């Protein structure tokens, strides 16, 4: 109903009054300094010594007048917490502000005063107080290494060094006290990781374990990707340490740069630093935290984990900053570094939480998590093979209650090198949440996905203007963006799943009630897909994205529209689709043929796409798609510099493709942008270069060129002038560890002939997600077979 002018005027007047009342609310400032005193007043000239005193004073102020805005100022210095700071509804409207991340630091560690004695030629030892238990050590602000096998090597891959013999019987026998040894191992399918402690050693020397609960897809330990730590006998190199809990003895092998007489030794003792906890009925409101560096929390991989519905994940519900039952909490302009587990965990009921302008790096697990309560999910299932019978399913759309994060924002942050301990992690993790916006972030150097959505409940997320790359470094079968959709419609038996969705076509929208949008991002995944919508992911719109390496994969799911994207050197990967998925793929630029696997149907519309050549287009048309598509050079403006906008003469424009900005990816905050990396811009091999005999590329650290001359053919013993020659190998590269040698000629891959670089790259891009390629090569004029592991060392057959 249209309001009258008097009504409008009344509303405006009320708004103005409320505004001025807010402006006129009383304000109180409380000051804290590490140099203050316990009995000080909390003023700028008489600051409190610790933050807890300021919290207690703030509560008293709010008790006297709940409308008072309290500002807690942390002056320059390091603050070491004895216990996590607890922020409850009593403190609504309170801000905690530091003087900048280079000045104000909050830590969960304590300094040890030690009396070192020589233990042997290299190792020193000191007694520590009884009850002081720690799992990380920092000396002169540099993290030291818990005694481990194999030794730490930054270029060593999983856990910066792994070994197949980490749990060999002879090795275990060499340990005086193996009980308490920590074991880290990848899932056998490399879908995540497991962590154990040795609880007992049997008479035959085999170990028994506790743990292994950190993954929702049970499997045996990976045979190769294993690492053990917390073993005194493995303290065999500089920088390593060990705490013998039974004797309270702390052993350490100092590096050359450390003088133990004046070294500052910090040990980590807290699991979390700040806990903001309320309820839906009585939420914590209007809390602001800014200008602070947060450091030093314990590793939490042996804590209780819970499954995130039928995703591959289980997760510890906790973090350095834990937020639950809140409204309008903002974390801004902070730094999070050297934290052992999850960094920020937004749990259950939360509305309008914001993380902006912050820097997260060198941390053990996930950077920022939004995880709701399973009680809000109708008819939840928690394991891949579980399913609630149709007759028992709650058929109401959407959540059952409000106990989940909604309308939250992660904007303008720099996130990298998280997952240093745990591998089932993400830069941003979303599960049982609604309307989460992830925008303007640079996310890279991760063992797994940059952004992960665990299921369809309840969609509405916006993923935009992010730069996500160098991901899936230690896991497999994922993407820089990764999602699942194993919601109520999902059934682990495909025959049953087909029947259920045929009989109930709207069922995929019961949980994914809002469309998730992925737009205006740049993704690059060298070990998987750039965008990976896995099992059942439904109700997505994906447009205006640049995919630099791995293409776009849509596994079985419903109602996805993918349009106006640019897929450099790769293509569309539709996998095991339903007969009537309702999917759309149109007006995209692809650079290889489609990489389809076992489709029952080709969706609603696959058309108006630009292919690199006639052959790729013809292959698509055999599936009765792409009637109006064409092929040709897209005519990028400046591909060498990463500008993939197309010129006015581009055939893509005639198909309806529309240019979008190429300079708006990643973090925008000036101080973070100058620090942030950007992805490597690839050489385009798949368009005009495909006809260039002199084309040369770098793949996995090796330089390859086409066989061009009779001399090259004769030297290699080839029957024709064809194949791809390896001319150089980069130090410490994947190719350097692969078994390939300079002079090898690749002539066959994955049962297909390889005559040119485009042939090799087409096979590589279509199979890279598997983590290995079966090749045939000519070496010393003889044909040999080789399995090239695209991340790790290969072996000759």
Major sheet details: 24 strands, parallel
Count of extended strands? 63
| Unreliable residue runs | 793-797
Q: How would you classify the helix and strand content by structural class?
A: mainly beta
Work out the radius of gyration.
29 Å
| Strand portion | 35-45%
On the 0 to 100 scale, the average pLDDT is 94
**Cα separation of the termini:** 77 Å
| C-alpha geometry | globular
Give the count of helical stretches.
9
Architecture blueprint of SSEs:
Elements: H1 5-23, E1 27-37, H2 51-64, E2 69-74, E3 77-80, E4 85-87, E5 94-98, E6 104-107, E7 109-112, E8 117-118, E9 124-127, E10 137-139, E11 142-143, E12 145-146, E13 148-149, H3 169-173, E14 182-187, E15 193-201, E16 207-211, E17 221-229, E18 240-244, E19 249-252, E20 265-268, E21 274-277, E22 284-290, E23 293-297, E24 306-307, E25 314-315, E26 321-332, E27 335-339, E28 344-351, E29 354-356, E30 359-363, E31 368-371, E32 405-411, E33 414-418, E34 426-431, E35 434-439, E36 442-444, E37 449-453, E38 462-464, E39 467-469, E40 479-483, H4 494-503, E41 516-519, E42 522-524, E43 529-533, E44 540-543, E45 546-547, E46 552-554, E47 560-563, E48 566-567, E49 572-574, E50 584-586, E51 605-607, E52 610-611, H5 614-621, E53 630-631, E54 636-638, E55 643-646, H6 651-654, H7 670-673, E56 696-699, E57 702-706, H8 710-716, E58 724-729, E59 745-749, E60 752-753, H9 757-767, E61 772-779, E62 782-789, E63 795-796
Parallel strand pairs: 1-2, 2-5, 3-6, 4-21, 5-22, 6-23, 12-18, 21-26, 22-26, 23-27, 26-28, 26-29, 27-30, 28-31, 28-32, 29-32, 30-33, 31-34, 32-35, 33-36, 34-37, 35-38, 36-39, 37-40, 38-41, 39-42, 40-43, 41-44, 42-45, 43-46, 44-47, 45-48, 46-49, 47-50, 50-51, 52-53
Antiparallel strand pairs: 7-20, 8-9, 9-19, 10-11, 10-20, 13-17, 14-15, 14-17, 15-16, 18-19, 24-25, 54-55, 56-57, 57-58, 58-59, 59-60, 59-61, 61-62, 62-63
